[in-house]
Amino acid sequence: MTPSSSPSLADLLHAAVTAVGGTERPGQVTMAEAVAEAVDGGDHLLVQAGTGTGKSLGYLVPALAHGERVVVATATLALQRQLVERDLPRTVDALQPLLRRRPQYAMLKGRSNYLCLHRLHEGVPQEEEEGLFDPFEAAAPTSKLGKDLLRLRDWSDETETGDRDDLTPGVSDKAWSQVSVTSRECLGASKCAYGAECFAEAARERAKLADVVVTNHALLAIDAIEGAPVLPSHEVLIVDEAHELVSRVTGVATGELTPGQVNRAVRRAAKLVDEKAADGLQTAAEGFERLMELALPGRLEELPEDLEYALAALRDAARTVITCIGNTRDKSVQDEDAVRKQALAAVESIHTVAERIVEGSEYDVVWYERHDRFGAYLRVAPLTVSGLLREKLFAERSVVLTSATLKLGGDFNGVGASLGLAPEGTGGADVPQWKGVDVGSPFDYPKQGILYVARHLSQPGREGSRTDMLDELAELVEAAGGRTLGLFSSMRAAQAAAEALRGRLDTPILLQGEETLGELIRNFAADARTCLFGTLSLWQGVDVPGPSCQLVVMDRVPFPRPDDPLMSARQKAVEEAGGNGFMSVAATHAALLMAQGAGRLVRASGDRGVVAVLDPRLATARYGSFLRASMPDFWYTTDRNQVRRSLAAIDAAAKAEEK
């Protein structure tokens, strides 16, 4: 096709939007034009596209028209499914006649997301001490684990993908771990009896042939960090839900050591190495476990001498075991390759984390965590991932990052800095140049929503019940006739609020943790009188348009906990470099969550309602204007009586429509 006969971007977008049954919006057109300009010029782009813009088509259409391979990375399973099951099939069908070619697309996830046929048929290499029977042996298993495994075996004969997310209903993590492997545990297709049928290998092959590869932030991070490419080479990277990227990359780059993990590695290695090597690892494990029994939560700015000694012993013993496993073969061990691979993966993980902590780095943060049920953890995470992202993500491809919340406090520079980007329009040869575009929203926020700040309430403290806040919450919920999504800064606060309101109101109160999240959201959407209270995943994961969600309440500004080791270390580092650590870290963290939380209110053009923040600091503190500027442009008030009248009117209108 000659350039003169190529279809225009406007024609392509119109065809795609028509195919999905949508309507073109100015913001979507602006976004598509900006993405096309960026990918054609090999440039980097940050796009804020509000809810309802139709941003997936805003990037898919110009990406497909570009003709080079594109990787699209998202944070949530819901968006991956939407892209692969709805948006891409319809868009490709619509564009094929205009492009005169049919772009191919594929989904690619980490190896542990796919059923492993070797594990399924040969069983899991188990530690003898655990004494687990083979759940597949029982003709009629009675335990939930046994039933899940039997269903997985039946499903393996039907599934074309082996993708865990295609199994409905799902199974427990414990059941899935029996039939999946990590990349470190995998035997490799050439050494595995089931390599030719491997679901993970098939997914990678489909990805190599695809024009568009849909993946997740975690796999993108692994591809960038570990140096061993797991994604096919690509010229364009599009990161959707980009506000999540830094936390997902941080998660992948975080190492962890627990006594349980170390003891499992000891048991797995014991049957494969000589007694001296096994005893050395056992002794080191016991020393580490004794220290962890006494560990108190908190950051370790310097390694205590006893911990440094214990970790060095663990590292050295693990290195010896790794060498032994590489040099020995034991024909008496059934399915010895799988046993060796699993043991090696477990011991290598111990060695890597122990060595990283002992060697120390000014760019790492080390801390203890303690859980009531699981005991103490030792963790190490990067102080920042900005340099890593700048070097690995932006160096060799055009990158487009998009989300409904990328402008914090009115500009892109805060999010840009977390990604390793200098302020827009600045930077030298080593700093990627980029452009930020806000394409707006199709919603009329000042007319559709109210931002109410309860200025009269007492300021929240770290602990203790806020009786005035609970009184205010009860009055607001009553005025709204239910219809409330309660977003709380902690699970304890959500539980206390649910308990208090269940005792005061007839309104049904659903609480996160009492059912699966999917079931809670379905029940919340089904009955407009119902309220749903919860914590972090609700701030970002609820999409309930219509009369079921007309009041969104935030109990307080969601600053990170003062004792959060990683956040406090990042804040301190900014201050030592001469910056404002509070605004760069704590306020930016809160602004992102508040923008996401407020975005739960207006999900469709007919939605009306109130976002109520029960923390006076949003109105009175100096940083309040920064936080408010990060949220949708709702009509702002601190008048409690006005808000009650507005909620009552919205409730009455919704009831009239329901009739």
UniProtKB/TrEMBL annotation:
Its EC number is 5.6.2.3. Pfam families: DEAD (PF00270), Helicase_C_2 (PF13307). Its cofactor is [4Fe-4S] cluster. It catalyses: ATP + H2O = ADP + phosphate + H(+). One of its GO terms (biological process) is nucleobase-containing compound metabolic process. Keywords: ATP-binding, Helicase, Hydrolase, Nucleotide-binding. Residues 14-310 form the Helicase ATP-binding domain. SUPFAM superfamilies: P-loop containing nucleoside triphosphate hydrolases (SSF52540). InterPro entries: ATP-dep_Helicase_C (IPR006555), DEAD/DEAH_box_helicase_dom (IPR011545), DinG/Rad3-like (IPR045028), Helic_SF1/SF2_ATP-bd_DinG/Rad3 (IPR014013), Helicase_ATP-bd (IPR014001), P-loop_NTPase (IPR027417). One of its GO terms (molecular function) is ATP binding. The keyword Hydrolase applies. SMART domains: DEXDc, HELICc2. Belongs to the helicase family. DinG subfamily. This is ATP-dependent helicase DinG. It comes from Streptomyces albireticuli.
